[in-house]
Write a structure and sequence with these properties.
Elements lengths: L3 E3 L4 E3 L21 H14 L5 E3 L8 H23 L4 H7 L6 H4 L6 H11 L3
Length: 128
C-alpha cells in the first residue's frame, strides 16, 4: 500500500494500511505484509500528521490523528500481548482459545476479520 500526503491541504490518504472501521485489519501476507510492519508504518504516519490533518483511510469514515493513534495502539498492544504469550511457550491454538484481553473485545466484533484471525496474522509475523 502507498500513502499520499497532500501537504498543502494537510490531507493524507493511507490506502489500506489504515482502515477506520473500529476493528482488526487484514494483513496481506501473500505479498510480504506483516503485523509488525503495519504497526511500524502507522507509527511513522503518526510522526507526519498533526491534530489538524484530515486522514482518508482505505475504508471507513474520514479520521483525525486521535483515530489513527487509537488504531496504532490497538495493533501495537495486541502484538505485545500475543508476543508475550508466544514467548511463554503457548501455541497459536492456545492463544486463540484464550483470546485477547477484555479491553480488546469491541475490536473483535468490528472490522474485517475476527479476533482469532488477527491472532493468527500476528503470531505468523513474530520470529519463531
Amino acid at each position: 500500500d502507498s500513502v499520499i500526503f497532500f501537504r498543502g491541504s494537510n490531507v493524507i490518504h493511507t490506502g489500506d494500511q489504515y482502515v477506520n472501521v473500529g476493528g482488526y485489519p487484514y494483513i496481506d501476507r501473500d505479498v510480504g505484509g506483516s503485523a509488525l510492519g503495519l504497526r511500524d508504518n502507522i507509527a511513522a504516519l503518526l510522526e507526519v500528521v498533526d491534530d489538524e490533518t484530515r486522514i482518508i483511510p482505505g475504508h471507513g469514515p474520514l479520521a483525525r490523528k486521535a483515530d489513527l493513534q487509537w488504531f496504532h495502539d490497538l495493533v501495537a498492544q495486541t502484538i505485545e500481548h500475543i508476543e508475550g504469550e508466544k514467548r511463554a511457550g503457548k501455541t497459536l491454538e492456545a492463544i486463540q482459545s484464550a483470546g485477547l484481553p477484555k479491553k480488546f473485545e469491541a475490536a473483535g466484533k468490528a472490522g474485517f476479520i475476527p479476533e482469532s484471525v488477527w491472532i493468527q496474522f500476528v503470531y505468523a509475523s513474530l520470529d519463531p
